[in-house]
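Memo to structure team: turn this sequence into structure tokens by end of day. - J.P.
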Amino acid sequence: MKDNMSEHFYKISNEITDLLHKTTLSQAPNVNLGKSENQYLKFLHENQNQQVKMKDLSRAIGVSHSRITHLTDSLAKKGFVIREYSSDDRRVYYAKLTEKAIDLLNDDSRKRINIYNNLIKNMPLKKAKELLQALELWKNQLETLIKDGK
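Reply from structure team:
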């Protein structure tokens, strides 16, 4: 029974991920962002009050350091990031979001919240609360599995 349930969780989570991807920055008109670029921008947005080292960004979005360099080049050409070099070591740089990127990310957040509001409003309150509790449990268990290296 649990094996079948695991397969169903796998299938439904992939379907939800695909549907959510259709509401992301990569789908915004005239933006043309790939998945890694999208993750890169969102990570910087979530951490915009601190200088993020490229190795930390690389680790956070699960790509190599050379891929981060390529993504930074691509996003800089698109006008979404600028490089800020360390005053201590010119070999070290940080990517900083431009106003264009911040506006796009804020707009993306508003659109996503609106989508979630519409989803919730079409559900009975009790079911919405149960779903939220189940998702929190799912996220916590996934974080534990990742932390434990399983």
